[in-house]
Amino acid sequence: MGSYAAALIFCSLICSVAAQAPVVTVEPRTATIRQGESVSYRCQVKSNVQPVQLEWRRANNQALPDNVKIGPDGSVLTVANARPGNHGQYRCVAISAAGRSFANVVLNVKYPSKVQLTPAGPLLIRTGESMAVECHVTGRPRPTVTWKRRGSTLQLVTQEINDWPSVRPEDSGVYVCQADNNVGKSEAEVELVVVGPPGTPVASVNIEEMTAIEGQTVTIECKATGSPTPVITWSKLRAPLPWKHAVADGVLTLTDVGRQDSGQYICNATNIHGYSEVYTDMEVDTPPYATCLPDQARLQPGNSLVLQCLAHGSHPIQFTWSRVGRGSLPVGAETTREGKLMIASVKQSDGGTYKCVATNHVGSSEAVAKVIIKGELVFWKSYQINNLLCLLYF
């Protein structure tokens, strides 16, 4: 009996070592596809106990969608014409007499953004009341949200809810919610109509956004309806009006504008029933003003030369280098888009005056830098001494 028991124990140990649960691997472990694309996963099993049965299921144990197919031998799972609902984890389960094991895979399905507004509008609301419109956004990756007013490029808010604590007549208009991810864009709009009591001022301007050139004269016209006739005044956001300004019959005139005059101008129309405000955003573009650093460089042959051209003005600004009195820059000279001129190792012949021209859509400006190679001075002094010796000799 002792030998028989020992044999049974030995056999049990051998069998327990041999009869191990299957080892499961799946390739790929993670896949990211767009809506409408397809992907396949292959389940591979290592087991010394046969047969092995393979099963595919959702990791949450829900049924496989109808566009998910299993291959004939059960090892391949294919998601065809992927939908957003296919996003998630899938599990390959291997079952044998020795036990069961599994491996999970992840499927990321990207799809374009989609927008829905609540309430949908058009919305009729009285002056002074509060109003909020929610922009419901779906999409993967999560889209970014932007609200704008139709006819204006100004960004209002970057959140899903656009609210008005107290609406005014000038808030009337069409508002657009835009959603964007790296798969696609979507937008929806809602019309807001604000009504007030008879006689309430309603102001309007002939232009909401404008670009002027430095030195120009600009006029912005503001009109207002209401009874009694509203009084129109102009102001500038967070700054006084430019000193070269005039207001007549609701028209604001700005003379010889400069970059400092850029900003938001506010027209206010007021009567006994209330007030109304509208805005014009003005950007003043200026030509470049160029300078060189340094404006003079003294070098010895073999030294490196770096000249930097700087320019103030409206962007973008392009830089062009040349050498005064020469057809082109020296051999080996390099320039950059940022306005640098570089020569790694200067030669005697590289001395001279270099000119930088800065250009934008308004105009251009130039600056010069003088480059002196010290060998030139040594040669000139030697030439002067030789001439002096010749004069003394004769």
What can you see in these coordinates?
With 394 residues, the protein is mainly beta. It folds into 4 domains: 23-111, Immunoglobulins (Immunoglobulin-like); 119-195, Immunoglobulin-like (Sandwich); 200-285, Immunoglobulin-like (Sandwich), CATH 2.60.40.10; 289-373, Immunoglobulins (Immunoglobulin-like, Sandwich). The chain has 2 helices and 30 strands. Strands 2, 4, 7, 8, 10 and 12 form a 6-stranded mixed sheet that branches. A hairpin with a 5-residue loop joins strand 5 (68-70) and strand 6 (76-79). The longest helix is centred in the last third of the chain and has 20 residues, at 374-393.
Keywords summarizing the entry:
six-stranded mixed sheet, 394 residues, four-stranded antiparallel sheet, mainly beta, Immunoglobulin-like, 2 helices, disordered C terminus, 4 domains
CATH class of the largest domain: Mainly Beta
Work out the radius of gyration: 39 Å
The third-level CATH topology of the largest domain is: Immunoglobulin-like
Largest sheet: 6 strands, mixed
- DSSP, total strands: 30
- What is the CATH superfamily classification of the largest domain? Immunoglobulins
The total of helices stands at 2
Query: Structural class of the secondary elements?
Result: mainly beta
Mean of all residue-level pLDDT scores: 87
Uncertain segments of ≥5 residues (pLDDT<50)?
Answer: 5-17, 376-394
Give the domain tally. Answer: 4
Strand content: over 45%
Helix proportion: under 10%
Shape: flat
CATH architecture of the largest domain: Sandwich
Q: Please give the alpha-carbon distance between the first and last residues.
A: 138 Å
